[in-house]
Design a protein that fits this description.
19 strands; alpha/beta; globular; Purple Acid Phosphatase, chain A, domain 2; six-stranded mixed beta sheet
């Protein structure tokens, strides 16, 4: 009896030991019967849903990352099997075009070689391997690679094992920096030092590298740049010779306001000539020209910035006509209309530049506050002030930023420390929103050159 009991216990232990092994073998055989591509197809399905959810905004980081995920997943399939995708409603025709670059991100594609050829085709290249030496084609190469060992119809087993969807590198969200400086006057003492040094770019030599940080750079041009017109007899009449345009080009200005009290120092002919010369130099004139009241648009990546310029100082006869360029003289309704026009054009950020205030006063006037806050209330994101020739406060208001006066950037007012310095305001923009800003005081030396301290 005792022996039978022991034998029974032994069989029970052996049975319990074998059951897990049996189940494991059964499970392995069951898993081996499953489609090895099912997980990849499932992941592709999820990415497809993400692409559809993101809509048509192909420039945004999420859509871009999804397209890269799609490509990486698609290349993990053992062969280019369109039928597998079509059965799951995943058409091979899916593609994304990156709005902020000249090349396309294509997906799904069966291998990197096909990806590059599609990219080359989208840029008008023949698709030959030699085309990858073209500078424009390099953009395709940077995305998908071009070395021969990378162009394989199938991904190695090691790559299939190591690559996971959560390991794909994240793309950074696009940020741009808008830069703003104060009054720029290139005549009189500034011109004297430039001519003494036989270099029209002399005023900008010590600050040019610092000005490379902003993606878009804006300033206020207080002296016309022309060899035309005649002195209108003002107490201070500024006109710089055409060669001084070289300094503005060196500093890489994108836009300059020409709406200020010195716009017509040398008459309408010099003003019109200045606007034309700026245009030829690739610099947009804001607040002046035939369409002085219309916003000026600048694109950086996927973001569009609208600039409006006005002056509260000037004469009624300065306004433009159908045939004669002029200046945008300020009034509330004109500014509201300009902001509305920028909004209708779907600008991501609206900048309003205003020439206003009282000279040499360190604090803004009540009228400056009223105008600036009205601009923000009407939809502007940034208000940039000029004219006082000294730095005034920068404040945040209702989600916007107001810089009442950026002071002098380049000006020959050497009679005080306050008039020998200005602010460089840098505003960081992402997805049409202000996400940060900083200001830097940049003093001038005795030759009226801005010299950053950092």
């Amino acid at each position: 009896m005792k022996n039978k009991f022991l034998i029974g216990v032994l069989f029970l232990v052996l049975f319990l030991a074998l059951v897990p092994a049996f189940l494991m073998v059964f499970n392995i055989e069951r898993e081996s019967d499953e489609d090895p591509n099912s997980q990849i197809l499932s992941d592709l399905r999820n990415v497809k849903l993400s692409l559809e959810d993101s809509g048509s905004n192909y420039g945004d980081p999420e859509s871009y990352q999804n397209s890269r995920n799609w490509l990486a997943l698609r290349t993990r399939l053992p062969e280019c099997s369109s039928s597998l995708l079509e059965e799951d409603g995943l058409s091979p025709a899916y593609q994304l075009n990156s709005r902020d670059e000249n090349w396309a991100v294509w997906a799904p594609l069966c291998n990197k070689e096909e990806a590059v050829y599609h990219c080359l085709d989208s840029e008008g290249f023949s698709g030959n391997r030699e085309d990858l030496t073209d500078p424009e084609a390099i953009r395709c190469e940077e995305v998908f690679g071009s070395d021969s060992e990378e162009f394989e119809d199938e991904v190695s087993e090691d790559e299939k094992t190591e690559e996971k969807i959560e390991d794909y590198p994240e793309t950074s969200e696009e940020k741009i920096i808008l830069g703003f400086v104060g009054d720029i006057m290139l005549d009189r003492g500034v011109l004297l030092h430039a001519e003494k040094n036989e270099d029209p770019t002399f005023p900008f030599l010590k600050v040019k590298e610092r000005l490379q940080k902003p993606d878009i750079l804006f300033g206020n041009l207080e002296s016309m740049i022309s060899d035309k017109g005649s002195d209108q007899g003002g107490a201070y009449s500024f006109r710089a010779p055409p060669k001084m345009m070289e300094g503005l080009i060196l500093a890489d200005f994108d836009l300059l306001s020409v709406a200020n009290n010195h716009s017509f120092d040398w008459g309408g002919e010099a003003f019109a000539d200045t606007v034309e010369r700026l245009s030829q130099a690739g610099i947009k004139a804001v607040g002046g020209g035939l369409e002085a009241y219309s916003p000026v648009f600048v694109e950086s990546g996927t973001q569009t910035i609208a600039y409006l310029g006005y002056t509260t100082l000037g004469a009624p006869g300065w306004v433009p006509t159908e045939a004669v360029p002029g200046v945008a003289m300020y009034d509330d309704e004109r500014m509201k209309q300009g902001i509305a026009e920028a909004e209708q054009a779907e600008a991501d950020i609206i900048v309003v530049s205003i020439h206003y205030g009282i000279e040499y006063q360190p604090i803004q006037s009540p009228e400056q506050e009223r105008i600036s806050r009205l601009a923000i209330d009407e939809g502007a994101d940034l208000v940039i002030g000029h004219h006082p020739h000294v730095i005034q406060p920068v404040e945040e208001y209702e989600g916007g930023i107001i810089a009442y006066s950026l002071g002098n950037f380049i000006f020959d007012q050497g009679f005080s420390e306050e008039t020998m310095e200005g602010l460089l305001l840098e505003v960081e923009i992402m997805d049409g929103e202000i996400v940060g800003w900083e200001k830097e005081v940049i003093p001038m030396n005795q030759q009226f050159q801005p010299v950053p301290e950092s």
